[in-house]
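Here is the promised in-class demo. Please do not try to memorize the tokens; focus on the logic of going from shape to residues.
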């Protein structure tokens, strides 16, 4: 393959990766899909490809759908061991962020909602809302009719709009809510934590990566008690983390997040989904493979001073 042909693919790699991530919820899987698309691009009769961008979009979309339909993926996601892979603000795989729809399409809340949709409906939503493809183009990509694309989009939008509870957040607001959350968590006072939560708040945790599946919690009192216990420093927890821990405020998938950092490595993350000025959902992850990409991006960017210097 000549240099110009490789360069043409590479020019669109970031867009293809962000498309695959929205469809799969996994950066690692998205990278695999894009690499598979490159191999197909390499083997294709490129003289017969009139619009390379459209051809590659179709290939990546259908490769991602094949993964979503695979027996392995269905088993993995059915046993409760799966959540979208978190991405730190500025990660190129988050893709376009000019519109509200584009930003929301990579929030953990929306990615979890999309997980409940049939694969084709999910693809239509992503192509339409995040990448602004027309229904004619989507019909061509997915080999469906224009009317079917319109119907899938309508159902998906209704599903997301009916259940979505994430609010857009900026860096200053994210820092404030993370500071308030960490102060309440470190205080050991359950009432301070309950006051930050909505009445119907929910939480997911992977138990510091030691569990085979995520634990789902509900009821503010129960969530607050779990957070209070989890944030109480002990020698055993510090040993499990791998050393002294600093706590930082960040934005992950468009939501405020608390990062636990050890020796320039992200050891864990708590992502806070907001409704208004209160926390409606929390997702806590500390398994090494789930936070590996956060560490990569953390090391590449500049950081503000920690909210908690020594935990």
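The designed amino acids, position by position:
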């Amino acid at each position: 393959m000549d240099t110009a042909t490789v360069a043409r693919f590479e020019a669109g790699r970031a867009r293809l990766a962000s498309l695959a991530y929205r469809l799969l919820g996994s950066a690692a899987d998205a990278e695999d899909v894009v690499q598979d698309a490159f191999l197909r691009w390499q083997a294709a009769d490129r003289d017969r490809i009139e619009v390379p961008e459209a051809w590659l979009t179709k290939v990546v979309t259908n490769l991602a759908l094949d993964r979503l339909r695979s027996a392995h993926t269905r088993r993995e996601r059915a046993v409760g061991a799966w959540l979208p892979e978190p991405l730190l603000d500025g990660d190129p795989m988050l893709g376009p962020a000019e519109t509200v729809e584009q930003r929301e399409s990579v929030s953990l809340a929306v990615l979890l909602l999309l997980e409940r949709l049939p694969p084709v409906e999910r693809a239509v939503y992503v192509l339409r809302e995040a990448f602004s493809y027309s229904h004619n183009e989507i019909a061509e990509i997915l080999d469906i009719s224009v009317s079917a694309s319109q119907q899938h989009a309508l159902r998906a939008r209704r599903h997301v709009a009916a259940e979505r509870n994430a609010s857009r957040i900026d860096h200053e607001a994210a820092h404030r809510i993370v500071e308030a959350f960490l102060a309440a968590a470190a205080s050991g006072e359950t009432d301070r934590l309950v006051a930050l939560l909505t009445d119907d708040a929910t939480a997911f945790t992977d138990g510091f990566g030691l569990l085979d599946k995520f634990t789902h919690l509900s009821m503010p009192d129960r969530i607050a008690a779990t957070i209070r216990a989890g944030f109480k420093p002990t020698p055993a927890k510090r040993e499990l983390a791998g050393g002294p821990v600093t706590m930082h405020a960040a934005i992950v998938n468009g939501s405020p997040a608390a990062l636990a950092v050890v020796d320039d490595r992200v050891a864990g993350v708590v992502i806070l989904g907001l409704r208004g000025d209160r926390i409606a959902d929390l997702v806590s992850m500390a398994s090494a493979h789930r936070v590996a990409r956060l560490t990569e991006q953390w090391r590449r960017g500049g950081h503000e001073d920690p909210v908690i210097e020594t935990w």
